[in-house]
Amino acid sequence: MPKLDGTETKTAFAARVGLTKGRISQLVAEGLPVRSDGRIDVAEGLAWIETNLDPARRYKGGAPTATTRTATLAEAKRLHEIVKVQRARLAFEREQGKLIDADEARRTVFARARAERDAHLAWVQRTAPLLAAELEADPRATFAALDRMMREHLEHLADLPLGSFGDGA
Q: Organism's domain of life (predicted)?
């Protein structure tokens, strides 16, 4: 999906939020920010719509009470439009690379953890004979002890919650 420059025409912005171009023009008259070249900054536009959409329809007849807060058709339409704007904001943030797919992130982290585990176990196989030669010890016993210790260490790491590793900085 191509990255956006952060601005769109009124027509493109209308399609993004699920409104007509005419409704966008009405919202511009009500204060929706538009750049001097007539384009709309997507992030600013989404934020404005989310906070200012149909303010005259929000609470007809004063502040809401328990009885006036029932779902009217106008309220339902307003809420529907807000949900469309929120979905458009998420889509925009995904296009800009600010959001990632959770399943893809899980797969990536799992693959990285598996590769690190395999690298640690391969290190034991490479290092045990060298260590045994240096210490003039039995290579099989050295490998068995080092392998056992590495597996215990990896199990300990696997049991730690992710937050215990700090922020990685």
A: Bacteria
Instruction: From 54, 63, 51, 2, select the one nearest 26 (Cα to Cα).
Output: 54
Give the chain's end-to-end CA distance (angstroms, integer). Answer: 30
Give just the sign of the alpha carbon dihedral 65, 71, 75, 79. positive
Taking each helix axis as running N to C, give the angle between helix 21-29 and helix 42-52, from 0 to 180 degrees, rounded to the nearest 10.
80
**Residues whose CB is less than 8 angstroms from the CB of residue 8 and which lie 6 or more positions away in sequence, other chains included:** 16, 39, 40, 42
Range in 46-50, 69-73, 134-138, 153-157 with the lowest mean pLDDT: 69-73
The CA distance from 41 to 7, in Å, is 4
Instruction: Say yes or no to pLDDT of 49 above 70.
Output: yes
Between CA 164 and CA 158 the distance in angstroms is 11
